[in-house]
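Hey,
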Amino acid sequence: MRFLLFALLSLSFSTSFATTRGQFVGLQMLVNIWSTSYDGSVDGSPQVLFEAMDRPEQDSMVGRGKVLDTPQKVLNFICAKKGENNYQCSITIHRSNFASIGPGKAQFVARGADAKAIFEQFHTQNDRFSYRDEMSMFSIEATPDIFVMKFNAQGL
């Protein structure tokens, strides 16, 4: 059911909105990061995230892309290449023991084996992964011991 809701919401968004956008949907936060904004400017954030994912490309609900495999299915994380210099990442953070979600913000924290399982799906340097979108609304800080992902519509 969660997967179906994620699919429908992801498909309903257009790349004509802001480049990073979060929407509080019931018990989850849907975060979308697009390469192209409403004014035609290009944001390289989703391409950086796509390339950082150490996952094989496969067909997904938002196009050909990379999908994280998360323990306990508490997170849906897809980055897709939509065309030349056009990428989209759709992340759904489900309310769980790993997440705190409220209007305009969400945080996902995994520790131990759960963190390591997610961490290993990214290209890392010196046992560390760090990412922040160009709008400074979404970030990931991770090591093999802790994986922290944050979204704040007001900025981090």
